[in-house]
Amino acid sequence: MPSGLDARVLVLNRNYMAIRVVGARRAFRLLYKDRAEVVSQHDESWGTYDFSSWVELSQARHRFRDEAGDWIRTVNLTIRVPKIIRLLLFDRMPRRTVKFNRRNIFARDDNRCQYCGRRFPTSELTLDHILPRSRGGQSTWTNLVCACTRCNIRKGGRRPEEAGMKLTRRPYQPKTSPTLQLRITSPKYESWKHFVDEAYWSVPLQP
């Protein structure tokens, strides 16, 4: 069963702009050291809380619309894992480019083989160069796609059309973090949408 410490927390800069996503452990360290505050929605209004007031609020579980959310239990306390925190001194602007890495390619393609269309665990997927590297293909957003092992072997060192295969969709360079987009489509992280403009901001995710 997942622990509340496995939850993810959206981090805003001082100007309420989304800058990254961190784990619950990191979020609580920032709160405890008074380097951040919780930003939380209750009914139709938003409030901010330091660590002490958030602990106090957490004792009134009925105040939360989603009582089945993530919680951390200690010997003496039960504390709600915040969904959003705001850094009190950091005002740097968010990055506007998406990191080119394996995680974001898998997220962009929704862990689906771009040839057969089936969804696989990450461990069962490979990255395929549409134009093979042996023929000058580069490792770029538009030349790399997720492929299951079977389709990758079938395609071999050929172009898709030469192997009698078709892409389910053309690869593209995302404007915002694909991993973040997957999260904000989940009801659990619905509150993030208030601070993330999908058409503009890019939020790099920490491992």
- End-to-end distance: 20 Å
Which stretches of 5+ consecutive residues score pLDDT under 50? 198-207
User: What is the N-to-C order of secondary-structure elements (H for helix, E for strand)?
Assistant: EEHEEHEEEHEEHH
**Gyration radius, in Å:** 21 Å
Tally of discrete structural domains: 2
Strand order of the largest sheet: 2-1-7-3-4
Classify the secondary structure makeup into a structural class: alpha+beta
Quaternary status: single chain
Helical stretch tally: 5
Mean pLDDT: 83
Shape: elongated
Proportion of beta-strand residues: 15-25%
Q: Which features characterize this protein?
A:
two-stranded antiparallel ribbon; 207 residues; DNA Binding (I), subunit A; alpha+beta; 9 strands; disordered C terminus; five-stranded mixed beta sheet; elongated; 2 domains
Task: Give a brief outline of the structure.
The chain has 207 residues and is α+β, with helices and mostly antiparallel strands.
Task: Summarize the SSE layout with pairings.
Layout: E1 8-12, E2 18-23, H1 24-32, E3 36-42, E4 45-49, H2 51-58, E5 71-73, E6 78-80, E7 84-87, H3 102-108, E8 125-129, E9 144-148, H4 149-155, H5 178-184
Parallel strand pairs: 1-7
Antiparallel strand pairs: 1-2, 3-4, 3-7, 5-6, 8-9
Question: Could you explain how this protein is built, in words?
Answer:
The protein is built from five helices and nine strands, in the order E-E-H-E-E-H-E-E-E-H-E-E-H-H. The protein folds into two domains: 4-95 and 178-194, no CATH class; 102-163, DNA Binding (I), subunit A, CATH 1.10.30.50. It has 207 residues and is α+β, with helices and mostly antiparallel strands. The strands form three sheets. A five-stranded mixed β-sheet has the order 2-1-7-3-4. A two-stranded antiparallel sheet has the order 5-6. A hairpin with a 4-residue loop joins strand 5 (71-73) and strand 6. The chain has helices at 24-32, 51-58, 102-108, 149-155, 178-184, and strands spanning 8-12, 18-23, 36-42, 45-49, 71-73, 78-80, 84-87, 125-129, 144-148.
